[in-house]
Recover the amino acids of this structure.
């Protein structure tokens, strides 16, 4: 039996697990972010990694192009990691949960390599597979989440987060989006994934929203000008000394950038496909 997330998907693909490729068609799904809202789960099994310890801010600042020393609890920040050539190794989101506790998304396995080679007073732990990760975007997204949580969420400013509850389960609501419209993320314990999802989807469906598949997810990223690692550009993991050796004993962690097949007009020159923050308009970081 399909889980409730994959229910109604007319195309699925295997990425170690079944991922919804399309539900009602990419056009309907994309347009939902303009008129009502879409509910997406493409990032539900994201690489999640915690950094804890008194030197956490200094550590993050030392490995990222941006500064974390003034970051405050309850905030979210974009993080970009580069190698010695200035090529992007990965980018993602850092959430500050407590004074010495940060949760990162899509920075692993690169961040784990740096943790294992750091002399700072920190510790790192993988949270992948332990936390669900939903996205909702569109003009009705706030209305939907307020009905789901039975609370006022208007105090959550952009790039901020706080706790709430949905269907009797603790969740964390983040105001962050990639569709160019009002958007939020809902995070929580993986054990409550389906029960929280079914509640959000019931309300979203009642408001005329759509489920979002992989095709429309990528299109939304492109349309809104948010380049996506592994989709819009590859990462030089196996071309970067230290990280290459680290991944040699962890092939499953590096599979996105292992055995690449180069197609398209760019040709067979892999180096020309790697990018810097300046190439993506992120020089302000």
């Amino acid at each position: 039996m399909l889980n409730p997330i994959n229910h109604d998907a007319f195309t699925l693909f295997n990425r170690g697990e079944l991922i919804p490729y399309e539900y009602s068609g990419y056009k309907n799904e994309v347009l939902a972010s303009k008129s009502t809202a879409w509910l997406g789960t493409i990032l539900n099994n994201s690489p999640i990694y915690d950094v804890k310890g008194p030197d956490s801010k200094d550590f993050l600042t030392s490995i990222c192009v941006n500064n974390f020393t003034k970051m405050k609890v309850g905030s979210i920040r974009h993080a970009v990691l580069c190698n010695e050539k200035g090529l992007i190794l990965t980018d993602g989101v850092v959430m500050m949960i407590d004074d010495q506790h940060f949760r990162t998304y899509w920075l692993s396995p690169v961040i784990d390599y740096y943790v294992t080679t750091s002399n700072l007073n920190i510790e790192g732990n993988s949270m992948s597979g332990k936390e669900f990760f939903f996205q909702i975007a569109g003009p009705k997204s706030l209305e939907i989440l307020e009905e789901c949580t039975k609370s006022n969420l208007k105090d959550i400013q952009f790039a901020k987060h706080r706790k709430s509850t949905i269907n009797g389960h603790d969740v964390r609501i983040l105001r962050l989006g990639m569709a160019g419209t009002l958007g939020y993320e809902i995070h929580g314990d993986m054990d409550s994934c389906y029960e929280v999802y079914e509640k959000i989807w019931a309300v979203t469906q009642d408001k005329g929203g759509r489920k979002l598949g992989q095709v429309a997810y990528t299109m939304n990223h492109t349309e809104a000008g948010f380049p996506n690692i592994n989709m819009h550009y590859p990462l030089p993991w196996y071309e970067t000394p230290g990280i290459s050796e680290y991944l040699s004993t962890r092939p499953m962690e590096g599979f996105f950038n292992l055995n690449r097949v180069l197609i398209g007009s760019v040709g067979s020159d892999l180096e020309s496909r790697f990018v810097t923050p300046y190439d993506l308009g992120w020089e302000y970081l």
Observations:
- The longest strand covers residues 88-98.
- DSSP finds seven helices and 13 strands in the chain.
